[in-house]
Design a protein that fits this description.
Length: 250
Amino acid sequence: MLIGKYPWMYKTQCDAHGIQLLLKDTYEKVNWVQKPLVRVLRLVDNDWSTAGYLYEAMERAKEAIQQRCDNNEDKYIQIWELFESRRSQNIIHPIHAAAAFLNASYMCSETFMENREMKEGISFILENLVTIEEKTDFMGEVQLYRMKVSSLFTVTAMTMLKTSHPHSLPILKKYAIRILSQPCSSSACERNWTAFEAAQTKKRNRLAPEMLDDLVYCGSAHDREQDMEDHASGGMVENVNDNVIDDDDL
């Protein structure tokens, strides 16, 4: 209904659910594949802005599987087939590929290589999300961004890649912010509904809507604080920007 009313809106599947399906598929074959995938699941199973990291995280998980098999194709090809099937059907959407390209810190890293999926992702955004009036300017700015023009990627800009886009690309920056600000999972929404269900007991049915909202807010805030503490102690987005996979991570 909302997408019909607002044509520039678009929804993707819950990636946490897709990764859980992949974990189930691979566990039936080899359980050592679980660790790289669990790291991706920990990245996306929250309401943080992770859209710009999912694509890279899945690529790194795939590389970890290959390295674990000593780059022996006979060992990893069957696992890769399961991986690619779930990846394309339930996890990676063209928006995620475009988000990887629009993530300036990843795009300017040594490991980045633009591929067909990313180009198709940018085309998807152009066709479905960018307004007619901005399409020409959008693609012009994409080309400047892709070329890493020195006048845009100054020393100051390069030091701020993790938090901002070049200021001289206003149209591209606007859409990049919208896309990179998105979470990859609906788990947070589901937890909110669970919180409402827990708060809505027979006694509490008599509460005014405002009081019920306050009760749910307090419970959700407590859970959020706990998540932050877990993140600070254990690091939920583990090494998401690292370019090297250590042997201990396999």
